[in-house]
Amino acid sequence: xxxxxxxxxxxxxxxxxxxxxxxxxxxxxxxxxxxxxxxxxxxxxxxxxxxxxxxxxxxxxxxxxxxxxxxxxxxxxxxxxxxxxxxxxxxxxxxxxxxxxxxxxxxxxxxxxxxxxxxxxxxxxxxxxxxxxxxxxxxxxxxxxxxxxxxxxxxxxxxxxxxxxxxxxxx
Amino acid sequence: xxxxxxxxxxxxxxxxxxxxxxxxxxxxxxxxxxxxxxxxxxxxxxxxxxxxxxxxxxxxxxxxxxxxxxxxxxxxxxxxxxxxxxxxxxxxxxxxxxxxxxxxxxxxxxxxxxxxxxxxxxxxxxxxxxxxxxxxxxxxxxxxxxxxxxxxxxxxxxxxxxxxxxxxxxxxxxxxxxxxxxxxxxxxxxxxxxxxxxxxxxxxxxxxxxxxxxxxxxxxxxxxxxxxxxxxxxxxxxxxxxxxxxxxxxxxxxxxxxxxxxxxxxxxxxxxxxxxxxxxxxxxxxxxxxxxxxxxxxxxxxxxxxxxxxxxxxxxxxxxxxxxxxxxxxxxxxxxxxxxxxxxxxxxxxxxxxxxxxxxxxxxxxxxxxxxxxxxxxxxxxxxxxxxxxxxxxxxxxxxxxxxxxxxxxxxxxxxxxxxxxxxxxxxxxxxxxxxxxxxxxxxxxxxxxxxxxxxxxxxxxxxxxxxxxxxxxxxxxxxxxxxxxxxxxxxxxxxxxxxxxxxxxxxxxxxxxxxxxxxxxxxxxxxxxxxxxxxxxxxxxxxxxxxxxxxxxxxxxxxxxxxxxxxxxxxxxxxxxxxxxxxxxxxxxxxxxxxxxxxxxxxxxxxxxxxxxxxxxxxxxxxxxxxxxxxxxxxxxxxxxxxxxxxxxxxxxxxxxxxxxxxxxxxxxxxxxxxxxxxxxxxxxxxxxxxxxxxxxxxxxxxxxxxxxxxxxxxxxxxxxxxxxxxxxxxxxxxxxxxxxxxxxxxxxxxxxxxxxxxxxxxxxxxxxxxxxxxxxxxxxxxxxxxxxxxxxxxxxxxxxxxxxx
Lengths: 171, 807
Hints:
Strand order of the largest sheet of chain B: 8-7-6-5-9-2-10-11-3-12
Helix content of chain A: 25-40%
Strand content of chain B: 15-25%
Largest sheet of chain B: 10 strands, mixed
Strand order of the largest sheet of chain A: 4-3-2-5-1-6
Strand content of chain A: 25-35%
Helix content of chain B: 10-25%
Distance between the termini of chain A: 35 Å
Oligomer: heterodimer
Order of helices and strands of chain A: EHEEEHHEHEH
Shape of chain B: globular
């Protein structure tokens, strides 16, 4: 059963595979109807610093590797790579030029202070607030979580929720 | 009598008991003119050591344990140590003091650490003789003796015997390496250094942060050592030399080149519990631990590996991978130096003493380990969750080991590093803090290649050993000052005979209230009931005067010939031995200035130095690399930074003044025409302010005023920026650093050397000011109430002491 109060969650992980583990757990909750979910995406930040949406999940907990029509409003909003990258990839305070002097072998100086460092992962999910505790318990591997509450699941509300949750990821 | 015999006789005539050695009597004859005059060419010859005196290479690794190097069964590959051990001797009964400076003081002087003022570390001078951090003139280092007897001498790397407040250009320099027996010094004076961005001192000058972007201190140390050796040999084919190679590795920050740390990817996924068992099995196979030894158990306040989350396991495993790579690189660099000595043909008569660790693995990273060791030193407690988040913030696991962090591994890894023993650094009561691997290599003298020596040996033995090897007596006087006898016992007697009766039969240990007394195989452990990584007020107040009774601390008793690891406490079975060793400890403590116990922590208990009287600090010109322990005392106070600038017509940009880096520091700078101020609260929080108007051209004064909220440690406050005395912007700093910004990074006027405080100018580092900084003035404002001032002073001193313990 859906209610009007929804949580927009961003969770960050040091390890992409652990992000996937938690992502699967959230989808399983939706599939088992333990929570009412609008949608979820799993993103990965590669060692090249690129953020990619690697999986999506719909309100029934069904996975869809491709982003496109029929995945629901939330996923549709979350999934475009550019938006996902903005939400999870940029994070705290924007990246401002090369950080270290030029000798860093990995070049990670360019990418640090992002919400996700290279090789890490993230989960973004929208679900009824009544399931907050259940979802929270399922995210056993998240290093950092930020949740914003919104009313309804309109595009405007979702965007506002994402922005608020993103703000919570900084600092 | 042939020439060699004559020379030998002449050598015997030299009185080496008093240094400097007096000029020889003139053996020639001067007449009114050269006609008939007899020359004496020996008169102009420099002092020479005894014939065949060996070269000496003394290597000391930092913050490392008995169970680290592969030579002693550990997981870290140490082929150089292996090679030297195969051709020389392994010592599995060698002991140190359990703390950095104390071990170094004992190593250099051959005297007990308290007896030479180093019951604590160099960062903190206490008000009692055993804790003064002032090496006394009557206990000069053996390097001074070698130097005075004709050796070339040099020290590379970590020194840590110059008090913190004497590390600037005003000196005094009498406790810098050059004054203590070293012709040449290249390294760092303090207790630790960044490996990518160190502030290097050469002799008596700071030469700053190397500009070379590929610079890596451990490699550069070896380069410099080899360069010096080549120079000595180029000048004199025979003259013996003494090189002290003292690595900053493996002390935090654990900065490792990726190529080295990647060698250990996955090597520690099994965790610390299993690693200890694996190490212990190898130690038995190698024979460095007796076959009947028992592995000691994990302290109850350390988590089992199995209890950790998956993220924790992976982060912790990475901590050890980096530490291992860092350490192996140090051994590789020692190998480069050995190869260079070999290539010069000097190895055959070089006494190499290679000590793996000055105090056992360090548990100062707390249970979680930390992305920035300065969090611990500033008393900023971080939960495991926060640590993981900050790892995420500062670049993830890829950044662990780079200069983006100042990492320190978990205390549990330190415990595993000290396998098979209990505890680690600071814990002088147990072998985990006091027993370290040592290898001695001297082809000309050692016949028992690959032999093992198990006699009790101690760091104070090194000086007497080297002097006996060189055939040089301990001098009775140096520079007119009568010398105290060295406390150590030469270990030369062990070179030939594995079964030789032990000669260093008795030794006290004490660091931070943790005590031990060794005598004839018996070891009394008398540990102060403090978890080594805890220095919070609630912990410390248990040891206040009148509260703590050291006599009532529990004791343990071990008989090491039958219990190598200290696994079987015999205290209940031998109360008479406990009594005897307790009494002996107090006797030795009194004799060596150990008393009062905790004499290095006086500031925690109300004994603070006088309040500082200087409140204004002026920096003219472009002063660089002010030691982090010597910057103006702005901590926990309101203060202003004022600067007089000359801005050219085209405008200017760059740093006016900056201290340390993004992991703790501040920077006042001009960028995009605006006056900006950045403040990093030990990498946990960052605060930035900027002017709303642009900085004008011509003669300009700028000012940053910080108005503290309250007279309390780490106080927040309001920042106001001024240009030509007009307020132009500001903002808040919610938390300020209460004790110290960095363990090594310095303060600069007109630029930001090393890693930048503010990443916005990282691509322009060091972002030198393009106008002119005429002067910078710090005014530290006293708090209105004298009591506040005194309280904050006490806090600052306590913080410094806490920092010092971890240095």
